[in-house]
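Morning run. Coffee first, then this:
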Amino acid sequence: MSSISPDDLFRSIDLELDESIDPVLSSPVKGRVNRGEEEEEEAESIPREIIASEVRSTRFLAALERPIRLGTFNDYTAFLLTFRFSFQRVLDGYFKRVRAVDIEITFDDAPRDQTVGAGKNPSIVRFHPVEYNGPVTQGMVTYSSGINSDLSSVPGGPSVGAHLSREVNIPIESSLKVHGTRDGRPRRNKIIWTIEEDRIRETGLPREVKMSLMINMNDARRFSARVVVAAHYMFKKGILAKQFPVIGRTNDPLFFDPPLLQDMARTKQTGPDGAPIAEIVGKLDANFLEGSEYSSFPGPAQA
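And here it is:
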């Protein structure tokens, strides 16, 4: 029985704008002496568990939780994948707070033999959350308007200035918002989640969230997944006003080899924490995604 070495499962990278990210190391199986071709082979078959990076005031972490669940959905081979995202504030400050993130996960056909031709990308058939609105916060916003004018009784004579102003208080409501949608043609192979802070409380994003999805495929070809997390800061102008990737700046996808993962599930291979790497769960349905084990947010899964 083989297991994943803890040496390469976690890394923390200072993500300065003038630095580059080194490729994430693969996850070797413990006990091997030769870590050359066999290690590279494993990295191209088993998705690594944790990818981490750090950017100034917030530490961003993306993880693919284990076990990876294998089953069927509508009589097709299916994977149930749970992703965990952490947003740990390192420094406080109004302009250091991340007010929103965009999370994109794209699945692509990735056969080992590139000469076999392009196949069909995996299709995202269910995901959770679809839409979530947290507890409502009530507040008040004040709008003010003014008019300046110069009055003169004689052309060219002395003038008298006048200023009229008015303030209006308007009640508003806000909450933590999460929204997910699928994209991709002809198969929907991309999921996009957006998380926005409560604009009234201004407390930033949750420390940690879980999100899950199910994908279908027509055959047992290897496929890949690329995770990109982009952050929005508290700037209205300048470079930081726009989103920029904090995870996924390099083309460093995860690889899934269905036959190998099925074999690991049958032989109950485990990682360093003793948890199985993959698990066969049989027939899947949307209810799998609605439990707290798979999602941090209540509500039904996408149908």
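Helices lie at 37-43, 258-266. Good start to the day.
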